[in-house]
Amino acid sequence: FGPNNPTLGNPDQTNGDVIAFGNANGALPTYVHPIVGDDDPFAQLEDNPIPLELVSDGVLSERMGIELVCAWTSSLGTAHVWYRLLNIGRPVAAMSGTDSWVDFHRTPALGTGRTYVRAPQDASSDAVLGATAEGKGFVTTGPALLFSMNDSAQPGDTIASGAQSWQLTLASTTAVDIVEIVVNGEVVKKLEGIAAGQQRDYSGDIDLPAGGWIAARAYASEYQDDAWPTMHRRPFAHSSPIWLGEIGSFEPNARAQSAIDLIRAIDAAEEQARAAYGDVPTPKLDARFDEARAKLRSMLIEEERVEPLP
User: Fold this and answer.
1) Which among 92, 84, 31, 82 is positioned nearest to 61, based on CA atoms?
2) Of the candidates 59, 73, 106, 182, which lies 20 to 30 Å from 226 by C-alpha distance?
3) For the whole model, what pTM was predicted?
4) Omega before 11 cis (within 30°)?
5) 144-157 in b/e burial notation, b at 16+ Cβ within 10 A?
6) In this structure, what are the phi and psi dihedrals at residue 184, rounded to the nearest 5 degrees?
7) How far apart are alpha carbons 207 and 246 in whole angstroms?
8) Distance of CA 19 to CAs 24, 57, 171, Å?
9) What does the pLDDT look like over 176-207, one tens digit per residue?
């Protein structure tokens, strides 16, 4: 089902039902290969660059993943959506996927897009999935990226705001020229990259805001025609966030601006659905859009950014 696929029976379906079913059965519902280009999709919403229900599901779902790493889509473009969801306090899990066909010529080998998480050596598959959902690691197309705060707090953990120290280790078989520290979606430190086959340790100090998150990312600024042995055109790695104060905390200005952008994205998705379905009623889908918008507007009202709607 979905826009432009009305022949598959009743079109009044919503991914919210799929997410609820997955969570009830021990799965981690995840949006796969979401954003194609590197540019900020919120700057071109008229082109429908974001999957129809991704934003509303990210706003409403207590437990959901987003595929930040994939051979066929942009990690940088997807990060723009992920950051805004993190900024409103939604701990959406960064995920990876290869999306490979073993009988096709020159597609990535299975497992070349990876999620590394901290787990006991004898951990069960359920424990590994739980650590993944809790963001206890990093996603990568090859480079290894180990990020921590005060030599102890790691991705998925929490840390106090104010003056703190950070540590980062980066190792890669391919060249990585951009290394950055990100706080609430904004790059706050730019570091020197590494050549192919190198490893480097970084450290520094930072003054953290009262709420939100901090993470590290590293990637190649240019696509590579033959990125052996990673088999991905862009070497890329991103840590999951370390939360400030508590998981799901937020910085008010970042939350307000992200809520505004997410409302615009839901409005665009609603227009896309209406154009696709025409006169066919879709009350379940419409209600999902309305519920997510209302939740975002309540955040803006808290920050006195908008007046309540009648």
Assistant:
1) 92
2) 182
3) 0.94
4) no
5) bbbbbbeeebbbbb
6) 50, 40
7) 17
8) 8, 8, 36
9) 999 999 999 999 999 999 999 999 999 999 99
